[in-house]
Amino acid sequence: MSLPFLICILAFAVFVYTYVGYPTILWLVGRFRAKPLPTELGSGEEWPTVSITVPMYNEEAQARGLVESLLALDYPRDRLQILVVSDASSDATDEIVRGYADRGVELHRMPERGGKTKAENAAAELITGDIVVNTDASIRIHPDALKKLLVVFRDPEIGLASGRDRSVGVGEAAESVGEAGYVGYEMAVRDLETETGSIIGASGCFYAIRVHLHRLPLPDSLSRDFAAALHTQEHGYRAVSVSSAVCDVPRTPSLHKEFRRKVRTITRGIQTLVYKRALLNPFRHGGFALKLFSHKICRWLLPWAAMATYVSLGFLAPGSVIAATLFGLGTAVLLLGAAGWFMAAKGSPPKVLRVPAFVLAGNLAAAQALLRVLAGDRDALWEPTRRDPTPVS
User: Which of 152, 242, 256, 145 has the alpha carbon at shortest distance from 203?
Assistant: First the structure.
């Protein structure tokens, strides 16, 4: 067996395991271990006190709609704190939020920009609820979703509950089938992970966590939504996904903006896993370690596996019709993705190019993120991805 052929086999195995094998294993294990989540309060029980925290930086276009949507949530108002954390915004964000002070909305302004995680760390001591809900300015939580998310905390084993992202958009963003399909796949995997114990990362758009877990120290450069699930595991709790707790997540209207967002989030994700690398020890963390390896590390390796496969097929092509055919198909997909990428810089590419362009952008982002980590980049500052406001449907 030649080295190029062996590389092709191993790289293809990584791809199949990551996107097919791992979910299949979860499904099989879940048939024997699934544990239903609580769906309603017990007799005489009260809803927990909750603090919703929203970090914002220059979100004047979103601030009013976000606050109005939070005030419209179906939840006892005397048990709900809404805390907006402004990362030293320089536009009208703070003024807009202060306009809701008479309705109980609180504003904490950072003295200078420090990034999303630093802002959340600084606001931790201002939290009054037993449960902390984290969300973003562009997200719209369905009015009944908060109760559906929080009722699962009736189970004392649950330390974190993540909502279900629903990718929505208008105009060009509405046609981003690649992003919508990926979000749907990710939510399905989280459901399977929940059935088998814990998810390995929460949705930064909408998740709830017990306050003592939220207050655990976290370096400013790391990803809180990922670290929150890891903290939960370390302290003996389950992190779960609640499929009925829906929030609408506007799609990024530009492929190039989505690429930059992915580079930032994957970079912070890799740095967070390095910080919490002890959780990869299967002798201490069992199935969770396998999930962490399968869901994160395998995905981050896929761009390199794809590159190795493509180069190996090029070496094999002169002596194999099958290799030549696969090399040609790979070249065609690469060219279609590149064409879509360049056309996206000037507008929306044709539909036939959108999925290849999205796949190419995602793989390039993962590769660039790993290179940034290896180079020692530490970018704690945060430029939110600007999304079009989307009303709750």
Answer: 242
